Every structure is written in C-alpha cells, then in structure tokens.
C-alpha cells in the first residue's frame, strides 16, 4: 500500500509539472578565477597558471585557459569556439548554424596585454569589459558534437568563469544562459526522496517482522 501511494504521488507530480529542460547539464555557480598577468604581484598559489575547462567532467579538458601576453583559450581536438570566441549575449542560440560562424579551433585571445616603454602597460580585447557575458562552445563526446556556453565576467584584467552549461543531446542547440528549470530539480529530488522512503519502509517492516512480541 505504501509503495502504491508513493508511486501515485511521484507519477502525478511528474504529469502536473510543466515540460522542462531536462537535457541541459549545468555546472552550478563556480566563479573560477582564470590565469592572468603573472607580472603583477598576487598571493602565492592564489590561482592556477592554466585552467582546464572540463564541461562534462569526464576527466578530459575541453578548453584550456592560460596567460601569455594576455588571457587565451585553446579548444582541444575537434572542439571549437563560436564566432571566434566572441561575446554572445543572453538568449543567443549556440548551434550548428551560420550565425555562429566562424568557429575557432585554435588558440584565441580574450584579453591582450600591451606594453610600451613610453606608456607602460595597457589591455585590450573583446572580453576586457565583459559583465556576465558568454562564450559559445562546441565539443565532442564519443565522436558526437554537443553545444554549450560559458559565462564570464571581467574585473580589471582578471577573468572570472562564473558557470557553464551544455546540451546533453548531440547536435541539439542551447540558448545562452539556459539552465535546468526548478521543476527538473524538484523531480529529481522527489526521486531521491522516494528511494529513501522506500528503504526506510523496508527497514521498518523488517524490524517489525523480527520483533518476537
């Protein structure tokens, strides 16, 4: 009886909940400080000189951020940056269409560090004044192309990788800024709660069966 009631509740809620973006995998808030000018003093070991962005957490870096006369990002083999690593606003669609051309497959500058004897140092580049803007990404998993985005904020010369997401269905485009809707998280939570309640019910039943009284 208990199992029937639990099953009815979970199925009923799954029907009532609106359709969700269940196929989007989101990193959650990360706020990773990317490598920056090594000539400027900083706390020892405060950040890495190289950061490997592993979108699907399979242990293989998909995009490498490093600092060499500026912040640069390099896609791994068969991966690419939409619009040559340019800024995409919220709501843009990252997909295999002409609007994302050209795709950059080689090292790309984000912020360039300039130095002259006469004027000292300066910085330039598309990402210099970014404020939670996004970079469109394309990467391969088991020979199939997936699309994603990475949100970045620039503070001075320092780039902060806020978060990222990708579409788990190969070849399916993704909207910049799209994350799983709360209903999806709730449904997964209900599944976990249901499993815990079932286990608790089994233990209670077993204890009652073994009670000699």
Features:
213 residues, alpha+beta, six-stranded antiparallel β-sheet, 2 helices, 21% helix, 33% strand
Q: Would you give an account of this structure?
A:
This protein has 213 residues and is of the alpha+beta class. It has a domain of 147 residues. Helix content is 21%, strand content 33%. The strands form three sheets. Strands 1, 2, 6, 10, 11 and 12 form a six-stranded antiparallel sheet that branches. The chain has a five-stranded antiparallel sheet with strand order 3-4-5-8-9, with no helix packed on it. A two-stranded antiparallel ribbon has the order 7-13. Helix 1 runs antiparallel to helix 2. The longest helix has 29 residues. About 15% of the residues have low confidence.
Structural class of the helices, strands and pairings?
A: alpha+beta
Give the overall shape: globular
Would you report the number of β strands? Answer: 13
Low-confidence stretches: 6-22, 39-47, 183-188
The helix tally amounts to: 2
Helical amount? 10-25%
Q: What is the H/E string? A: HEEEEEEEEEEEEEH
Major sheet description:
6 strands, antiparallel
Please give the radius of gyration in angstroms: 23 Å
The mean pLDDT is: 78
Report how far the terminal alpha carbons are from each other: 24 Å
Task: Please identify the oligomeric state.
Answer: single chain
């Amino acid at each position: 009886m208990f199992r029937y009631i639990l099953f009815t509740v979970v199925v009923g809620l799954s029907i009532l909940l609106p359709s969700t973006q269940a196929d989007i995998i989101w990193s959650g808030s990360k706020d990773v400080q990317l490598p920056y000018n090594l000539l400027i003093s900083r706390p020892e070991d405060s950040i890495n000189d190289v950061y490997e962005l592993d979108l699907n957490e399979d242990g293989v870096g998909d995009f490498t951020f490093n600092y060499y006369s500026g912040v640069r990002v390099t896609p791994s083999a068969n991966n690419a940056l939409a619009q040559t690593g340019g800024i995409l606003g919220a709501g843009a669609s990252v997909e295999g269409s002409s609007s994302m051309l050209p795709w950059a497959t080689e090292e790309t500058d984000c912020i360039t560090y300039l130095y002259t004897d006469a004027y000292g140092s300066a910085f330039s580049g598309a990402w210099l004044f970014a404020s939670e803007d996004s970079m469109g990404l394309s990467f391969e998993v088991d020979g199939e192309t997936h699309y994603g985005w990475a949100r970045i904020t620039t503070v001075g010369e320092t780039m902060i990788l806020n978060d990222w997401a990708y579409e788990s269905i190969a070849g399916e485009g993704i909207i910049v800024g799209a994350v799983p809707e709360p209903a999806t998280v709730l449904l997964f939570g209900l599944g976990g709660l249901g499993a815990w309640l079932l286990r608790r019910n089994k233990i209670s039943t077993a204890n009652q069966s073994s009670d000699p009284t």
